[in-house]
Amino acid sequence: MALRVxxxxxxxxGCVRSKNxxxxxxxxxxxxxxxxxxxxGQAAGEIASHLSLEAVLDFFRHGRRxxxxxxxxxxVDGLSDRANRLCNAIFRANRMVYDAAGHNPENSxxxxxxxxxxxxxxxxxxxxxxxxxxxxxxSGEIKQLTADHSLVxxxxxxxxxxxxxxxxxxxxxxxxxxxxxxxxVVPDLEDIGVEKGxxxxxxxxxxxxxxxxxxxxxxxxxxxxxxxxCERLVEGAKxxxxxxxxxxxxxxCLEATPSSxxx
Amino acid sequence: MAKVHLKFGQSVLKTFDLPDGxxxxxxxxSDNEIHIDNLAVSGHHARIFWDTDHFVVxxxxxxxxxxxxxxxxxxxTLYHGxxxxxxxxxxxxxxxxxxxxxxxxxxxxxxxxxxxxxxxxETVMLGTKEGKGRLAQRIEGADGxxxxxxxxxxxxxxxxxxxxxDQDHYMLSDDMNVIGKSEMASIxxxxxxxxxxxxxxxxxxxxxxxxxxxxxxxLKVNGEDVSAQQPIKDxxxxxxxGVKMSFSLAE
Lengths: 263, 251
What we know:
The structure holds two protein chains of two kinds. Chain A has helices at about 45-65, 80-105, 150-155, 165-170, 205-210, 215-220, 225-240; strands at about 5-10, 20-25, 30-40, 110-120, 125-130, 135-140, 140-145, 175, 190, 200-205, 245-255. Chain A is an alpha+beta fold. The longest helix of chain B is centred in the middle third of the chain and has 17 residues, at about 130-145. Chain B starts with a strand and ends with a strand.
């Protein structure tokens, strides 16, 4: 059963770009929530993000209706069934974008990031590819739950670059993994427990390149109305330049999962 | 006495006195003397402090940076008339005491050719054709107006001794140079099983550093296995993914 949550989300083209290549969506009954940030020329970025989003949401809609989820044979060890379902949904999205790109030369090079949360009353699973992020705000503190698949952040994790160098690098925009650019993709997956009152933040890099983590935390903590919190964050990113599309989705957990450890 | 004017657009919001020896913290939280209530400003963003006989501004690892004379600065000496940018707010620095201290030539030069803050680039995936094109454009663009004194700084050069690559020599003119099969790599490997990103050579403060980029990639410097970042110097030999290269510094 889906975890009881309160939801708010907002996407904005920003102040510089002419089109919005971000997409977000959810299926409350299935407990699936996702943000995608597309890339590629012409309309390709928009197509890629929407295709990815639809593929993931459809996977759960159909699964719920049919009572079974198409699953690849090799389940990932050490992860819950739930995380494995999310993994398969991401595989499906990857395949759909990859195939769509192949059919139309105009769309070659198109791809999308994804961050998604499958929130069930037994537990919460996170899936991610690219440089969109998921944060957890708990007891007034914020923690980034995903590790960006970007060239510079990979270097920071390996101790080859300082965070400061990464932030000033001209290569910040290069990502190492995306949906739809290769026939297969390796998503990062994680099972977490949540406590009542936890807020999960799903967002595209248009938010996090402008707004420091601690500002995100303060807004979430200080603004009890989630819609207003979303608006403040998106408007804050626009005030700071709004150079990319901005998407922010906030999920407040209204109940705890049985094992709320992990984070 | 020196003063700092906090401005938004043209209007001064507040003025802070800065006697010699004093300091001011700048940030979004209310424990800063210069408190800027804007989400793009980090909690403890930067500070201005006294250093022996002058004031210095220092960034505190902020997300959006502290900008002076068109550049993002980790730390810089302040001169009378300087304007420090923190997000959309500016801090005008007026130093009556040292008003007549001449600015170094480099500061005057930087003021004369203030560049705009770099624009955020669209996301690209390593390895796509599109990404490669954009990367090439950007590197050309950067070469056009950066490094005002290219003659003085030595540039790293890689010469291929063995193995399949797309060129024999590579100038390491970027801050980050990727060795790999990816189309975005500056040093492109051609072997069938060559990794997309085998190693990365970073350039900072005039020095070059190499590191393997994926766990299963073997990188050797002068025949020794390297697993973490390592500085390289003139005459070193690098081996990665079946390619052997020698590194040299060219004036």
